[in-house]
Amino acid sequence: MTPLGIIAGGGTLPLRVAEAVAASGRPVAVAVLDGHGDAATFAAFPSRAFRWGLAATMLAWLKEHGVRQVVLAGTVSRPSVLSLRPDAAGLKLLARIGRAAFTGDDSILRAVMKVLAEDGFEVIGAQQVLADLLPPAALLAGLEPDDLARADIRRGIAVCRALGVADVGQGCVVQQGLVLAVEAIEGTDAMLDRSGPLHRDGPGGVLVKCVKPDQSRLADLPTIGPRTVDHAASAGLRGLAFEANGTILLDRETTIARAEAAGIFLLAFDPAAFSEGTTA
Fold first, then answer.
1. Are 31 and 7 in contact (CB under 8 A)?
2. Which of 38, 137, 212, 246 would you label with 221, given CA atoms 20 to 30 Å apart?
3. 149 and 94 share a domain?
4. What is the C-alpha to C-alpha distance for residues 157 and 210, in angstroms, rounded to an integer?
5. Where in this chain does the record put each LpxI C-terminal domain (predicted)?
6. Would you state the pLDDT for residue 76?
7. Is 12 exposed, middle or buried (0-12, 13-18, 19+ CB in 10 A)?
């Protein structure tokens, strides 16, 4: 059985994928993105840390370990151009990625996946390894959102779609129809922290997260977990609403328990249920 390669960023998802694959009896090789993931976390597996500028060397290392399928998992912040310091092979790889390296997140991911395919790798989604990673539409915690919260969710979906078309971010915070914050390169937790001081009196706001229009489902899906709930509670929010079958829910039981303890609703929604003119 050929090993599964994992290109690991930060967070708990890469390790969960590695452990699940290893438990199934399939070998694993983990390439850790230096500055994002912690190589020590993967000491039980063949692993090595690579900085961005050695991406071509990383792909060669995966091939040496017999990898043909790759999962891109974990949080990654884009490095500055000056920090890349690519070697000769890295320069050639960067040239193949082209202008996408300097545009939106989804653009660069599509370019990277194209390069991986050209090099003989098949990219698969983490959800193909871990069952129940993408919740279907359901209220997972808290009380059913009232009409004001549903209006905020509908507004948030529209804002997220506009952000997604521009390939900027996947989330926003809406309170009583007002957009308090939108997600960009800082990530969800920092956005939530930024929205806290903008909190209005009255019913709290809602974090809304959606898949970008035409986004690949193989990497960089919207993600929430226990830390998201903690930051949302600190920001005075009353709910987290995220696109069903398209958002990764990390540590499901812990996340739900924290939301219940904080009095925050968790809603995995079908976007069709919040289309214009829908009142139910």
1. yes
2. 38
3. no
4. 7
5. 138-266
6. 74
7. middle
Of 245, 246, 244, 250, nearest in space to 267 by CA:
244
State the residue range of the domain holding 14. 4-128
Sign of CA dihedral 268, 271, 276, 280: negative
Is 16 contained in some domain?
Answer: yes
* CA angle in degrees (0–180, nearest 5) for 202-206-207: 150
pLDDT at 280: 46
In a domain, 57, yes or no: yes
Beta carbons of 76 and 10 less than 8 angstroms apart:
yes
Please list the ranges in the chain whose pLDDT falls under 50.
82, 100, 104, 280
CATH, residue 119: 3.40.50.20
**pTM for the whole thing?**
0.84
SS3 186: coil
pLDDT digits (tens, 9 = 90+) for 178-210: 999 999 888 899 999 999 999 999 999 999 999
CB-CB neighbours of 277 under 10 Å: 4
Q: Are residues 90 and 148 in the same domain?
A: no
Rounded CA-CA distance 110/124 in Å is: 13
Does residue 164 sit in the same domain as residue 52? no
Same domain? 24 vs 96: yes
Cα distance between residue 78 and residue 94, in whole Å: 14
Residues 6+ apart with CB under 8 A from 25: 1
Beta bridge partners of 46: none
Co-location of 73 and 158 in the same domain: no
> Would you state the pLDDT for residue 194?
96
Give CA separation, 230 vs 136, 236, 262, 280, in Å: 23, 10, 8, 29
The tally of domains found in the chain comes to 2
CATH value at residue 243: 3.40.140.80
What is the reported pLDDT for 104? 47
